[in-house]
């Protein structure tokens, strides 16, 4: 969920609480183990999806499982230490429950080159960074209480929302509660990453890609830039959690998430290639 510019402007004028300021699987596992380091363990994770298509689904439904499994890091001090080493005091963890542990595991699935871009973005504002909490966004941003988020049905408010990205302060808040994302942590951080690399969701490249997708799920087909921004953020989450899986699996994961009904493999593969190519462009290359 990306907070609207209008609300972001409002937040700049209000005082925010200051206490948070200060088979084939084996070969893929082997690749994961090399990348994530010495102390990591492979775990099976069933990714949950839910459509944000109505208040009942948003707030009460069970997420429909995506078939298959995704390798993730085992949670422990190594995960927290590695991310803290990257972000320093820009990673603010007050959450202590299992949701906070999952958020950290998911964030560690992003490539280092993506984390480096995010660090620069967060460091460019005094309030920038990632807050991992045990509540919802209005526990911190009290000005949003009673306000309906962009793209959500009437009757829903920010009090129901577990995460957001505030572009006015370069701040990501990741909490606890029902959501329809493959990964709440990577989706919200994905909005920050979008801004960090120059509003990629508004680039000609991504606009043309988005127009080819035939997305049927309303939340990701919102008019204007909203649909593109939400699709970019969720696509990053789908890519990060599945990038070590077989190509067909990755393509289907994109297609299923966005309700792509025709040419699913081909269209899903285009989204997968976009983020893989983006990683290649961002990583340092020897001269």
Automatic annotation (TrEMBL):
Annotated organism of origin: Nocardia panacis
Primary site of residence: secreted
Subcellular location: Secreted
Keyword field: Secreted
Gene3D superfamilies: Collagenase (Catalytic Domain)
Name this protein carries in UniProt: ATLF-like domain-containing protein
GO cellular component terms, semicolon-separated: extracellular region
Organism lineage: Bacteria, Bacillati, Actinomycetota, Actinomycetes, Mycobacteriales
Segments forming domain ATLF-like: 80-266
Matches recorded under InterPro entries: Anthrax_toxin_lethal/edema_N/C, ATLF-like_dom, MetalloPept_cat_dom_sf
GO MF annotation terms: metallopeptidase activity
């Amino acid at each position: 969920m990306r907070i609207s510019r209008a609300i972001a402007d409002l937040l700049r004028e209000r005082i925010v609480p200051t206490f948070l300021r200060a088979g084939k699987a084996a070969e893929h596992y082997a690749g994961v183990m090399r990348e994530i380091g010495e102390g990591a363990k492979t775990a099976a994770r069933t990714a949950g999806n839910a459509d944000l298509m109505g208040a009942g689904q948003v707030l009460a439904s069970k997420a429909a499982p995506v078939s298959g499994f995704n390798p993730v890091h085992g949670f422990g001090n190594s995960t927290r230490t590695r991310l803290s080493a990257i972000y320093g005091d820009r990673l603010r963890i007050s959450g202590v429950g299992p949701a906070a542990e999952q958020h950290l595991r998911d964030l560690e699935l992003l490539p280092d080159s993506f984390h480096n871009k995010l660090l620069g973005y967060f460091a460019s504002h005094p309030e920038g960074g990632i807050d991992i909490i045990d509540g919802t966004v209005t526990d911190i941003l009290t000005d949003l209480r009673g306000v309906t988020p962009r793209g959500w049905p009437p009757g829903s408010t920010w009090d129901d929302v577990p995460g957001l990205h505030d572009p006015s302060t370069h701040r990501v808040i990741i909490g606890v509660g029902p959501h329809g994302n493959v990964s709440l942590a990577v989706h919200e951080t994905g909005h920050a990453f979008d801004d960090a690399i120059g509003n990629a969701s508004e680039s000609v490249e991504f606009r043309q890609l988005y127009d080819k997708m035939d997305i049927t799920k309303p939340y990701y087909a919102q008019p204007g830039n909203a649909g593109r921004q939400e699709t970019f953020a969720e696509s990053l989450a789908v890519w990060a959690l599945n990038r070590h899986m077989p190509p067909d699996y990755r393509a289907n994961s994109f297609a299923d998430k966005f309700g792509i009904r025709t040419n699913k493999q081909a269209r899903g593969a285009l989204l997968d290639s976009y983020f893989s190519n983006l990683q290649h462009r961002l990583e340092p290359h020897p001269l």
